[in-house]
Amino acid sequence: MSATVRTQVAEPMSEPRRGRWIDSWEPEDPEFWERTGRRTARRNLAFSILAENLGFSVWVLMSIVVVSLGSVGYTFGVGQTFWLLIVPNLVGAALRVPYTFAVPRFGGRAWTTISAGLLLVPCAMLAFAVTGDGTPFWFFLLTAAAMGLGGGNFSSSMANISFFYPEGRKGLALGLNAAGGNLGVAVTQLVVPVVITVGTGIDLVYAALIWMPFIVLATACAWLFMDSLTHARPDGVSYRRALTNKHTWVMSLLYIGTFGSFIGFSFAFPSLIRISFVDFGSFVALAFVGTLIGSVARPLGGWLADRFGGARITLVTFVGLALGTVGVMVGVDTASFPLFFCSFMALFVLAGMGNGSTYRMIPAIFAAQDEDVRSAGRQAAAVVGIAGAVGALGGVLINLVFRFSLEDGGTLTPALTAVLVLYGLCVITTWWFYLRTRVLTRVANLAHAGV
Q1: Is residue 10 domain-resident?
Q2: What pLDDT score does 440 carry?
Q3: Does residue 7 surpass a pLDDT of 80?
Q4: Is residue 4 assigned to a domain?
Q5: How far from 48 is each of 112, 163, 180, CA to CA, in Å?
């Protein structure tokens, strides 16, 4: 560190810096923010979005590949199919905590470079799997696990960007960062069905090869143009306080309901169309629409949370998610594909908005509890990783209930009932912890005023 040339607050940030470390970073200072902070933050946000987008693209790649495996000679049952969807989700969830702590350990620039470069591994494995003769199921399962590397990128990216922005701008910045990543799901589900049909028949090797040049580009851009902040360093006290804070686990539960829904539905939706509505199998190509609008809705949720309060927006999204789930249940029971499809579109939009609003709540909650801005920021960054990991596990649970529901009962109704119960629990939790006191206080004030 001592040999590293650093940029101070008062110095222009246009000169090259060895290691690209920034010692002094004060985004809450309006003068600093206007002079140099905003420009630097935006540059890091842009390249963070690029790397995270590719992470999501690789993470959900199996959701499209698995639908076409039967067409190229691999016949896996419903249970095996869902394990290929569950495993990348599970690995991605598990990696989110260590990925979050990698940012303060290695610096945002270095870790973004490393995590982006690692995406070449699952792509190479998939290319080998689909070109091999009679590749066994276990290798496909191992490939799916390697795709989970892309799931870890989210938490490290969000934790890193959260340090760059002032409190009043975090909602939109984190929303854009997350939305840019989430859009990777839509890009995969839109592009892969097209590229694998180039030429005669289906060639799944293109599903792997198409990402490799972009991964190399993102890796190079992260190394050349991103920065690391010195104050985003390990702070044992702050992290321990975050781990023992009840709000860490409350927000993790809420994130199961929002992000768990988004990623769980993203993995499962193409297969659910193929399995539940055989006559509408061609509509699998439209699965990307749900993930696209859900991704676009995420910064909207962050913006609405900035304007009206994260808890209010989160409560509204959970109520909407419950109603959307009822719509899906009716669509399945009446064999109405239009109702099924439209209800799922609503679920994607609401889950995306809820992702933005819940993540906006995290820094606000810890900023209100801790007057030390940096300590609050470090606690919030730790919670980003923890909630991100637990939320991604929600996607695992959703796919597990889909698997058991379809394999054991041949219907989605039990799984959808379980999801509906989850949303009800999230509504109660949001009200109890973040809105109940406000409402009771307001009623008491009105009563005292004689209104």
Answers
A1: no
A2: 54
A3: no
A4: no
A5: 7, 13, 9
Res. 393: pLDDT tops 70: yes
Element (H, E) at 169: none
CATH code of the domain in which 311 resides: 1.20.1250.20
254, 280, 296 from 315: Cα distances, Å: 10, 34, 19
Q: How many domains does the chain have?
A: 1
Task: Write out 120-168 in H/E/C secondary structure.
Answer: HHHHHHHHHHHHCCCCCHHHHHHHHHHHCHHHHHHHHHHHHHHHHCCHH
Q: What single letter denotes the amino acid at residue 44?
A: N
Confidence of residue 83 (pLDDT cuts 50, 70, 90): very high
Q: Taken in order 22, 23, 27, 29, is the CA torsion positive or negative? A: negative
Residue 423 · residue 321 · CB < 8 Å: yes
Q: What is the pTM of this model?
A: 0.81
Q: Rounded to whole angstroms, how far apart are CA atoms 436 and 369?
A: 18
What is the tens place of the pLDDT at every residue in 286-339? 889 999 999 889 888 888 988 888 899 999 999 999 999 999 999 999 999 999
Domain-embedded: residue 134:
yes
Burial of 33-58, coded b for 16+ CB within 10 Å and e otherwise, reads beebbbebbeebbebbbbbbbbbbbb
Element spanning 411, H or E: none
Q: Which string of DSSP letters, residue by residue, matches 332-368? A: HHTT-HHHHHHHHHHHHHHHHHHHHHHHHHHHHHHHH
| First and final C-alpha spacing in the chain | 63
Residue 437: inside a domain: yes
Q: Which residue has the higher pLDDT, 101 or 337?
A: 337
Q: Residue type for 258, please?
A: T
Q: Find the domain containing 260 and state its range.
A: 18-448
The answer to whether 63 and 270 are in contact (CB under 8 A) is yes
CA 232 – CA 112 distance, rounded (Å): 14
**Percent of the chain beyond pLDDT 70?**
91
